[in-house]
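Subject: for your reference before the review

Hello V.,

The reviewers asked for a structural picture of the protein, and I figured it would be easier to keep everything in one thread rather than splitting it across files. Below is the amino acid sequence we used in the manuscript, unchanged from the supplementary table.
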Amino acid sequence: MDQTLQPTGLPLPNSIGGLIKTLLPQGFAKLVLPVAASTITTDTQGLVAGEVLLETMTGGVPAYRAHPEKNGKFPVVLVIQEIFGIHEHIKDVCRRLAKQGYFAIAVDHYYRQGDVTQMTDNQEIFSKVVNHVPDSQVMSDLDCAVVFAAASGHADTQKIAVTGFCWGGRITWTYCVHNPKVKAGVAWYGRLVAASKAPLQPAYPVELAGNLRVPVLGLYGAEDAGIPVAHVEQMREALKTAGNSVSQIVLYDGAPHAFYADYRPSYRQAAADDGFSRMLAWFKLYGAA
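And here is what came back from the structure prediction:
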């Protein structure tokens, strides 16, 4: 069942005559079109799924959430977007997790800065939007998503997990340092070492390893041109130096960046399926299921 809801006391600014105009981007980002034949589409049967509006310190921010339609409170998974924003793939990941019994929610972290799904150049995405999104804003948005989930009456916020892809992979590591109440995190090919220092993104995972108290599973591709194996080994060493024997990194031979992105040529089904299974097992192992 597809529903568009709002939290109590927060009006949807674009509701006219009872009709809701969506704030989230629709479909896939222009830069990734045409999508591959391997694209997975998860239905909403047995789910409550759709757009919601979060109340934040700077106003309303849209998000996509999905959870089982049956009564109960479900473990929470914060799903963090790729650089392409909340397009159809991220919404589908939320539905996949909801089918596994989770309350999955993905916040549009770029909402204040711009809609990257309409851009057709990677450099434009970074120069106009991504480089202007403060980590502090993202941390606050994720905190608000937890509050929203708790207020919905459908979430067990004693069991919080977080997972993210690409840009969201780095944020996964970061949020697990920010919020030690998270039970488990799974980072999919998130950058570990800064290519250059950016004032709004002051620290990267390799620098945060000493402050990490949440068990994080990193899923990386050995053929990732943007995240070399040397960076993966640097992160492993940082975890070891910090005495962190719980967090782990899995390196998939032959897998490039974005190997979970079934809508792109980079998709590698074996690695993607294995990673998803490992993610669910990781959540269960550390009490987030």
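For the response letter, the relevant points are probably these. The chain has seven helices and ten strands. The helical segments are 88-99, 122-128, 135-152, 167-178, 205-208, 229-241, 269-285.

Happy to draft the paragraph if you're swamped.

O.
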